[in-house]
Amino acid sequence: MTTEAILGLDLGTTTCRCIAFDLQGDIIAEAATEVTPEYPAPGLAVVHADRWWAAAHGVLGEVAARLARRQARPLALGLTGLQHAMVLVDGQGRVLAPSMLWMDQRAQAQVDWLNREARATLEAVLGPGARASSTPSLPRLRWLHEHEPDLLARATTLLLPKDYVRYRLTGQKASDPSDAGGAMLYDPGRGDWSPELLALAGVRPDQMPPIRPSDALAGRLTPEVAAETGLPAGLPVAVGSGDTLATVLGSGADGAGRALIYIGTAAWVRRQGPRDRSRFLATATTGAALRWLRDLLAGPGNGLSYGDLMDEAAQVTPGAEGLLFLPHLCGERGPVPDHGARGVLTGLSLRHHRGHLARAVLEGACCHLRWLLDDAVAQAPDEVWAAGGAARSALWMQVLSEVLGQPVHTPRVAEAGALGAAILGAVAVGLYADREDACAALAHPGPVYAPDPERVAVYEGVYARWRAAEARWLGR
Question: What pTM was computed for the model?
């Protein structure tokens, strides 16, 4: 019997992943590859969009081959991706320059200008209290307008990362409200790009793609890409969404009283409140800090893996014998925005080894997430959920539960963004009536990590010392 599959492509900041799911939400094929950003100077971070395309092309081909061996038939493809990083393409679809990532801090002067000189415009479009930060695309486009105006003027179209990949897959240009909103160029009242915000960015309205619903059918796989990847020509491709929306869908953790923590390259906390109001805060480097440590410690031919680091960290007692890590390796987004923040490793001694360093990175990231969660909610949430690559690690989830002092729920599919993308694809081709029905059918709960009371008490002390280190070293 032929298995039917829905594909979700998740283009992350440092990892591109494709997962094929059956119609019960179980994984039947998966492939992933790393995408390495470049850091040309402290506070700068870029990726050339051709690397995103090469990564997506590769994982789609791997999944197609595995599906063929299982005689599984793809029905649809949905996409999600990192937000805020604009891809500038010319009339032939060629990429004109590397994309500045959300963690790139070069536009702080433009952030200050927007909040000083354009506050009224920001609030008129986005609502009372709206302020620019270094994360969205708007300030970086303003930077280009001021420093490289010819480059910006040459761009025929500006695309978000997942939109660029979808353009290469189908030949169709579009974006969706979630990615447009993340760019800080979207007017939620109009449901379209904001002419006023585009003017602040120095961008022409004709440079922006049409905005369509995330679960709409965007186009179909071209014969050329089908021949290269092994996927069927004409495969329906959904518009897709930014990674936050896809992760919320794929985790099944939406709902009042719940807080969802996503831990990938960075991390964010989303608390769903009454009347569909939510509070959202984010970090700058979380999983990226672990990757930094892995790459730092892995000499030529070492072959050090994340699993190796986790195994060694598990052998170290809570508190890493006094070692503390502040994970601000590329500025900081929250809960106190600080583009000049830098990481700190304090308490080192000759006693400490690689496992201590790994555990300190995990604990520092979890302390940061507790600070974020405390700032995002007025009272403790009824449930805390965690998704993303870190949710694959039982050790990381256990440490998180003990730093927070409450159970941590995880979805059955830790890479919830890929499942969320697949959900959007399934709705686009009519397999389910709407997103709610698709989530009910495909997104299921996974393990729950309960804190050990004795370790909770230890981590109360660790957290107090961590906050004291924040105050001492960063004045936060």
Answer: 0.94
